[in-house]
Amino acid sequence: MNGMLSDMKPEYPDADRPTVFDEGVAFQDMVAKIFEQELHIPIDYYETEWEQKNIGESRQGIEVKLDTRILDTKNVSIEVAEKSKGSNPTWIPSGILRKDNTWLYVQGNPSIILVFGKTILKRVYDKQYKDRVWTPKPTIKTFLMPLGRAEQISLKVFRF
């Protein structure tokens, strides 16, 4: 990605801090290096807003989400809906419920990275967590999966 995505930095008026987008980009870069070195899978992130909205996050169908508090809370917060700002009335499907080319869903932080099959996450959500969605921020809806359960259903876990 080489920082190109950061050139089209979106506005997040309800973010906890102004560095949220840059932190996410840095984590995506970290994941891309790990996938290339450890799994021999290059990740080529889409750089335009149109591509990201209409195709997916990357050409390989890999979506990466930064979740800074996994080890503190012992929960993985899986995104299911979003809106660009809290005052917008309409939620749109996102994360594992977004209809795009994603088949691998990677979530974590510099200490732990979990690699999930998106289909498995959706199935677990439908059977166990659909009624436990909450809104931790005015722009995101998620469900919390205990870290132990997340590790059980993940395809790969990296710990640093």
Describe this protein's structure.
It is a single chain. The chain has 160 residues and is of the alpha+beta class. The protein has one domain. The chain contains 5 helices and 8 strands, in the order ααβαββββαββαβ. The protein has helices at residues 20-39, 49-54, 70-73, 118-129, 147-153, and strands at residues 62-66, 75-82, 92-93, 104-109, 112-117, 134-137, 140-146, 156-159. The strands form 2 sheets. Strands 1-4-5-8 form a 4-stranded mixed β-sheet, with helices on both faces. The radius of gyration is 15 Å and the shape is globular.
Helices and strands in order:
Blueprint: H1 20-39, H2 49-54, E1 62-66, H3 70-73, E2 75-82, E3 92-93, E4 104-109, E5 112-117, H4 118-129, E6 134-137, E7 140-146, H5 147-153, E8 156-159
Parallel strand pairs: 1-4
Antiparallel strand pairs: 2-3, 2-7, 4-5, 5-8, 6-7
Beta fraction: 25-35%
Class inferred from helices and paired strands: alpha+beta
Radius of gyration (Å): 15 Å
Number of strands: 8
Q: Tell me the span between the first and last alpha carbons.
A: 22 Å
Query: Major sheet: size, sense and barrel closure?
Result: 4 strands, mixed
Q: Could you name the ranges where pLDDT drops below 50 across 5 or more consecutive residues?
A: 1-6
Overall spatial form: globular
- Would you tell me the overall average pLDDT? 92
Strands ordered across the widest β-sheet: 1-4-5-8
* Number of continuous helical runs: 5
How are helices and strands ordered from N to C? HHEHEEEEHEEHE
